[in-house]
Q: What sequence folds into this?
């Protein structure tokens, strides 16, 4: 199901959605070798945290570091500070690495247990619906119409005063110009 199936839930204009989908398709094409591109930061990752997690010391990105497991053991993946791992120890001295499987499991457990609960999802959806409710937009439109009506009445009264009295014309003209410049 997408926004076209439930239009009242659409929060992104169609042209913006199409542009985003076109960009994702172009990126996926580069990943699959179409166009001769190479992997870039904005491409889907096979790992959970790169591009999101940051080093607590330097603020740089955390990346996946693999190490040989030794005789007959498979390579093991860790998360660690990319700046440190690339030998930029003057930028960051954080040599801590944590097994990727442990971090990923903890992150997914937290998301499943605290964020993806029906109550949280329902609250988010309810908040979005409230913010997009036509009543709030209607109220704003009604306030703007009332302002326009008030301004039109003021201009009408000034116009009538100008027409009725040619002797006070400069004063009335000045008042009209001042009112037209007001916000």
A:
């Amino acid at each position: 199901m997408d926004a076209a199936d439930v239009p009242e839930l659409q929060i992104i204009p169609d042209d913006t959605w199409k542009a985003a989908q076109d960009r994702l398709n172009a990126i996926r094409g580069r990943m699959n070798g179409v166009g001769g591109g190479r992997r870039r930061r904005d491409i889907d990752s096979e790992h959970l945290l790169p591009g999101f997690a940051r080093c607590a010391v330097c603020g740089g990105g955390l990346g996946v570091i693999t190490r040989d497991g030794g005789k007959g053991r498979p390579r093991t993946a860790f998360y660690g500070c990319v700046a440190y791992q690339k030998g930029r120890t003057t930028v960051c001295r954080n040599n801590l690495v944590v097994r990727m499987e442990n971090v990923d499991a903890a992150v997914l457990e937290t998301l499943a247990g605290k964020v993806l609960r029906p109550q949280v999802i329902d609250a988010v959806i309810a908040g979005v619906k409230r913010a997009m409710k036509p009543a709030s937009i209607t109220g704003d439109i009604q306030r703007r119409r009332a302002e326009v009506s008030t301004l039109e009445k003021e201009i009408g009264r000034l116009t009538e005063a100008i027409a009725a009295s040619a002797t006070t014309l400069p004063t009335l003209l000045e008042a009209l110009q001042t009112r037209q410049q007001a916000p």
Summary: The first helix runs from residue 14 to 31. Residues 68 and 105 are 22 Å apart (CA to CA).
